[in-house]
Design goal:
heterodimer; A: alpha+beta; Ribosomal Protein L30, Chain: A; three-stranded antiparallel β-sheet; 3 strands; elongated; B: 6 helices; about 65% helix; about 5% strand
């Protein structure tokens, strides 16, 4: 059993243990339509149209954007849901 | 082609010629097959959600595989239906998007430059799939 006083936690373990936020990152791809991305962001995250459009344009112009921040399990579930629409998404520890 | 997808009191009406429906079903079957074997389509559709990992955990990976197969299978099954339920229409959007991205991965398209360098037939295929997605979204939400 590890000595918990001296055990060194990875960043991921630390975040999980203390419930620190994770981010869902949506990546630009050259074939997905802007209208599709806007619709999916509204449908999955419940964003209003201006928010969904702002995030979509950030993805389009900057190559990626953080579209959601929160608990790791929820972030993973959202990421999987985005993959259900073949959108390129990943999760990462919050910055 | 005028309003191939539109709402009616009985569901979402699909007004497409038979050969186009068969082509979509064939594309869905092909994308499903490619997603199962290691290659660009599999990596694009089923790559790990956490890029620091080589793979998702096996349960999550299996769930995602079922999700892809489910959406593509739903399109194949309902490809020749005249009417779709709301749920089926949403599966069509997911499936068409999966086909589009799988096809782009097969063409090794990763950037706007890659799209610009595609041959006419490949470019037409992607444009046709994008048009279907756009028309279906309009039909559902417009």
């Amino acid at each position: 059993m590890p000595d918990t006083d001296t055990d060194i936690l990875t960043d991921a373990e630390l975040r999980q243990r203390f419930d620190l936020p994770w981010e869902v990152v949506l990546w630009n791809d050259p074939v997905s339509l802007i209208s599709l991305v806007v619709r999916v962001l509204q449908k999955l995250f419940g964003y209003d149209l201006p928010t969904a459009e702002r995030l979509t344009m950030a993805v389009h112009h900057e190559g990626k954007a953080v579209v959601w921040t929160g608990e790791k399990d929820k972030a993973a579930a959202f990421c999987v849901a985005l993959h259900g629409y073949a959108l390129a998404a990943t999760i990462q520890p919050g910055q | 082609m005028s309003e191939p997808f539109h709402r009616t009191s009985r569901g979402i009406a699909v007004d497409l010629p038979g050969p186009l429906r068969s082509w979509l079903a064939m594309m869905a079957t092909e994308a499903g097959s490619d997603a199962l074997v290691d290659g660009p389509v599999h990596r694009r559709l089923l790559g790990p959600i956490n890029p620091t990992d080589d793979h998702d955990d096996p349960v999550s990976e299996l769930q995602r595989q079922f999700s892809v197969e489910g959406s593509l299978g739903a399109l194949v099954e309902s490809a020749h239906h005249e009417l779709l339920t709301e749920e089926q229409a949403e599966e069509w959007i997911r499936a068409l998007q999966l086909i589009l991205v799988a096809t782009a991965a097969r063409y090794e398209v990763a950037s706007d430059d890659d799209v610009a360098q595609l041959g006419e037939e490949e470019a037409n295929t992607l444009t046709t799939l994008q048009a279907f997605i756009s028309l279906l979204i309009e039909g559902l939400d417009g």
